[in-house]
Amino acid sequence: MNNFVFQNHTRIYFGKGVVKEYLAKLLEPYGRNVMIAYGGGSVKKTGVYDAVAGAARTAGKTITDFPGIMSNPTKAKVDDGIKLAKEKDIDIILAVGGGSTIDCAKAIAIGSRYDGDWWNDFWINQGNVDFRQLPLGVVLTISGTGSEFDGGGVITNTETNIKTGRIYPELSPDFSLLDPDYTLTVPERQVRAAAFDTLSHLMEFYFCKPDTDNVSDDLLESLMRSQIRNFKATLANYKDYDARSNIEWISSLALCGIMGLAKQPDFDCHNLEHQIGAFTDCIHGEGLAVVTPPYYRWLMPYALDRFVRFAVNVWRLPSEGSNEKLARAGIDRLASFIEKAGLPTNMRQLGVKDEAELKKIASSVQTGPGSYHKCSPEDVWEIFKNCWQEREKIQ
Ligand code: NZQ
Ligand code: ZN
Questions:
Q1: The ligand 1 atom nearest the CA atom of 142
Q2: Is 0.90 surpassed by the pTM of this model?
Q3: pLDDT in tens, 9-19
Q4: Which domains, and CATH codes, for the chain?
Q5: String of b and e for 136-156 (b: at least 16 CB within 10 Å)?
Q6: Residues with CB under 5 A from ligand 2 (ion)
Q7: Does the pLDDT of residue 8 top 70, yes or no?
């Protein structure tokens, strides 16, 4: 295996009733002022906010609310949060929500303890967290991104149309409380998108070098099969606790750092999707569903053996016929799974208006260094054109 360094300091509390059981105790060691960050109001409707605020009061804390964090959180929203955190002398942020709320809280955690330009120094460029950022705790209400168990944060600058993510091990939450019951109120469309996001994270780590025998690939295949099985069970019954709790834990595992050890992913499906999101504000997992099959059809000739392995070990296709046919059949199975799951399959469904806008988005994409093959601007344009027409290709 390649060399690696692994660090993840988040304590996970998983299962029914964990907020009531642990949150007040977990908050005790921190200072008095707690910021409760949340989204557009679902937590107020579901009662999750009351449970969290109740625990904070039990721990003797003074609460400052920071509501209204939108999906695909913006730089402007982070700026507001930084201002508030400084004004109220916040000691810990409690992010109550999903990836958007947690990512926004992570950027606030850095920006409120940094005097320079946080966006330029930590998001446009990879920075160095050589100071103690604000501590962060999480109460998860929608699973999928894995942000509750990683140091990643994705922020959109709506002035420059740049959506970009960075990973800082220091930003892994101190603790994350995962009660699968909390996710049962998530709208079905968001559940589907988030479940695909998790599958995409696993695939991003799988479709990259090295191809030498690697325990990470075995773990990834096993988790991909489990995610597909539990995704199907969820589609059959969105209230299936076993399926939903498995999906929640797989989403945390996918990005906790262990799955990609010794691998060299470029996360290019995410790089392509992030710019579609920057222009259309589409749901992250839906953008990935559109981009992934055309991207893999482009990548297949550079990684034929890997796509054969995907077809046989993940989709359990019989190992017969030419490698090319088998590899293609694996991608077709993925595409047909996406369609059957009710996820979008082309750019128009994401809100891209016309070819001119598609061109603009394509030219703004920054791909990674490449793992099997570097994706050039011309390649991005070819892939995007195929995303425009994807539906016609599915048998
Ligand atoms: O805002 P509220 O009212 O809370 O409603 C939310 C939102 O509309 C709703 N929701 C969440 N929990 C609910 C609920 N509705 C009812 N009941 C509940 N229990 O769901 C909607 C989506 O929430 P959001 O947080 O936007 O979804 P998600 O967790 O998918 O996060 C998406 C963001 O995470 C980024 C994405 O790019 C996107 O910006 N990502 C973050 C990553 C990371 N930090 O590691 C990795 C990912 O690849 C991803 O890029
Ligand atoms: Zn993702």
A1: 12
A2: yes
A3: 999 999 999 99
A4: 11-183 (3.40.50.1970), 188-388 (1.20.1090.10)
A5: bbbbbbbbbbbbbbbbbbbbb
A6: 197
A7: yes
